[in-house]
Amino acid sequence: MTDPALSGDTTSATVRDTPVAGSAAQSRSSADETRPRQRARRKHRGAAVIWAVLAWLAALVFFFPVLWMVLTAFKYERAAYTDPPTLWFSPTLEQFQAVLASGVGTTLLNSAFATLVSTTCVLVLGIPAAFALSLRPVKKTKDVLFFFLSTKMLPIVAVIVPLYVIVNRIGLLDNIWTLIILYTGMNLPIAIWMMRSFFLEVPAELLEAASMDGASLWTAVRRVILPLVSPGIAATALICVIFSWNEFFFAVNLTAVRAQTAPVSLVGFITGEGLFWARLSAASTLAALPVVIAGWVAQNKLVRGLSFGAIK
Amino acid sequence: MTKHSTLSRAEGWRRRAPLLPALLFTILVTQVPFLLTVYYSTHSWNLVRPGSWEFVGLQNYLYVFRDSQFREVAMNTVILIVGTVLISALLGLGLALLLNRSFRGRGVVRTLLITPFLITPVAGALLWKTAMFDPVFGIVNFVLQPFGVGNFAWVSQFPLATVMVDLIWRWTPFMMLLILAGLQSMPEDVLEAGRVDGAGPIALFRELTLPHLRRFIELGVVLGAIYLVNTFGAIYMMTSGGPGVESANLPFYIYQRAFLGFEVGQAAAMGVVTVAATIVIAMLALRLIFKSFMGAQEAA
Fold first, then answer.
1. pLDDT tens-place string over residues A73-102
2. Checking phi first, is residue B262 left (phi over 0); if not, alpha (psi -120 to 50) or beta?
3. What is the set of domains in chain B, with CATH numbers?
């Protein structure tokens, strides 16, 4: 396994080695090439194909479980249990209908509500904070930033016990607003760091110029700054959506029936309904779909969010 | 003089005002519960035994350190995090190198590759437990059939390892994305200069690319570790920490203590110990993020 990979590495790196064309423009050959170079080029192209095939293979291996989940969701139960596994089957929507009829729809709505409201709260609290930590910085900006970041380093188990006790005492157990508050707290530090990195890309003179024209600070921010950073804010919102939709620990400990979210609804499948694979797959597909799409849309900004804006 | 200072004080508050709601909210939601955890950890308190609230000092901590299960679980946590992070980083590096060249359908390949990271963790864990690792109908045994693997029960034979497979599957794309960002920020002229100097591809990779990637790999490793400390859903879904506590990590064990055993004081003490243990990684992560961030600012 290592040997071909190693030799492959050698040839591939030689692809980039072509001195005429830089890595970006390596595809087209220029006319004045000598023959040995052409031969070398052909060999490099062969190597490039091998590398592309490898990349595709890797992608299929990583994606396969997901693909299999989606396929199984369209099977009848008896087609889900075959040895060897079947790729060809007559598709059905039965499982999705059954899943939705069994109340997963409510949990999807709960998830959507918690996700959207908490993301809105994050933006409402986070945008002004990010502004106060970038364009019009407060004193001790560094300390405040450090504080926000350090809260993300706190393992969640360190707070779950008192949270449960408090929430239980004030009667907010199994209440969707409990999750909304916690998800806002969970995502706020990421959002502030990420949005701050977008704010910092706005030239500071812009704000000064706008406020010098006599516009109030608020007007200047609204008219000039916010439009500039809106793509960044959208990306931040998508990251928050992904994290809160997928959250499981708080949801499983602090909700029961009424406020149950989609990930928690899957718990039923490891106990009572453990043997219904097709139905399980349909439920999993429904629970996973929204964030997969959000993540695909935000994929260019994903790194930035996950690294708290440290990596562009 | 006084007038000036009051003016600047007003200006200071004007600047601070947009920050305060977020700051207060975060303190309220994260710091207050943690302080309560510390407070609870010095008490003996069982939720289902009324009137069991009693100050016990550091007794809970003594109990935690004497608990051999806790030590096993702590070890599991370390294995889980270190193993997952290292293997994911290696695989992620390989994938990032594959993706750092142009070929037909690169965008699609990247999209497919990041999908495991996006899938709801509990759904991913269920998928591995059933469709992939099932002894009779699972895909893994089907693929391994030609190699003489029969109906092997992966999850019950290697509970911790199967959980790790799920986690590696999920975190490799994360590492890939970070390292790919590093590769793409690599200045082409540096490589070019290396080539002109006659360096071979392996030397180029070792002497130029890898040092440049170091910051990104380090960041991936510490961030991955920080996120992985909170692993819960995968264990909950795949093994429930069993058999015994063979595949439990600290969050799962604490959850069991608090919500199945109702031992609030002990669970709180374990939470505090977990925090103390993560502080080392946390400080490392904080420093790295700060360094990267402030470095980028200076460069801009």
1. 999 888 887 777 877 788 889 889 988 888
2. left
3. 67-299 (1.10.3720.10)
